[in-house]
Amino acid sequence: MNRSKKEKEKVQQFKTITGASDKIALDCLRATGWGIEAAIEYFYASGLQGAVPNVDMRAIEALFTRYKGEPAGQGRARVAAGGDPSDGVIMAEGVGRFCDDLEVDPSDIVMLVLSWRLNAATMCEYSREEFVGGLQQLGCDSLEKLKRRLPDIRADLRDPAKWREIYNYAFNWAKGKNQKCLQLDVAVGMWQLLFAEDRAWQHVDAWCGFLQKQHNRAISRDTWVQLFEFARAVKPDFSNFDESAAWPYL
């Protein structure tokens, strides 16, 4: 649900004072009827400050502004029209520069995992809340700190529970806005990325080839989720395959 301009201002004010994340700010403000002073008292009385990494929020905001790349005239026009000066989105070009500065290929799966950590809704985009709040929770207020965290972020793929979450997250992240299904070419690219290295499923190329030749239609969420279960449960030689089980249906 979209928040009003006044609510956004209060969230930002609360975060500036406390260094809290968007989620904590919202929880405290909602719990106290959107009163700033009461919310701050609630924050400290509840001991929530211990959940806030010690970071320089101004440095994170500066990083967001750096990659947002909004022309100055456009920003002034939006503010003059009553828009929130903290609004904005890092688009594909800015994400590309972000990857360059991190010395990471945009197609590296670590960027998918990082986006999952930032709770980003859309591929090649970061809203202000996603980017600033996510880096705050990671405890990273500089590119150097984030670079040092990348091995830990990549390691999430080795955790079975997180790996499942990342796989399921990838469907919504990669599909187009307002789309229910994932375009086939995008799904194929995502499967080849996700089922690689130590997560390899040896039939991924055959599966993708079959879809491209015989199916040639968008992929539903049900098919996406069921394929993961199939790849994890069925042995490579199909010796334990059960035809009566609920496997991917096209």
From TrEMBL:
<dbReference type="GO" id="GO:0097602">
    <property type="term" value="F:cullin family protein binding"/>
</dbReference>
<dbReference type="GO" id="GO:0000151">
    <property type="term" value="C:ubiquitin ligase complex"/>
</dbReference>
<dbReference type="InterPro" id="IPR009060">
    <property type="entry name" value="UBA-like_sf"/>
</dbReference>
<dbReference type="Pfam" id="PF03556">
    <property type="entry name" value="Cullin_binding"/>
</dbReference>
<keyword id="KW-0833">Ubl conjugation pathway</keyword>
<dbReference type="InterPro" id="IPR014764">
    <property type="entry name" value="DCN-prot"/>
</dbReference>
<dbReference type="GO" id="GO:0045116">
    <property type="term" value="P:protein neddylation"/>
</dbReference>
<dbReference type="Pfam" id="PF14555">
    <property type="entry name" value="UBA_4"/>
</dbReference>
<dbReference type="InterPro" id="IPR005176">
    <property type="entry name" value="PONY_dom"/>
</dbReference>
<dbReference type="GO" id="GO:0031624">
    <property type="term" value="F:ubiquitin conjugating enzyme binding"/>
</dbReference>
<protein>
    <recommendedName>
        <fullName>Defective in cullin neddylation protein</fullName>
    </recommendedName>
</protein>
<comment type="function">
    <text>Neddylation of cullins play an essential role in the regulation of SCF-type complexes activity.</text>
</comment>
<dbReference type="GO" id="GO:0005886">
    <property type="term" value="C:plasma membrane"/>
</dbReference>
<dbReference type="GO" id="GO:0032182">
    <property type="term" value="F:ubiquitin-like protein binding"/>
</dbReference>
<feature type="domain" description="DCUN1">
    <location>
        <begin position="55"/>
        <end position="250"/>
    </location>
</feature>
<dbReference type="InterPro" id="IPR042460">
    <property type="entry name" value="DCN1-like_PONY"/>
</dbReference>
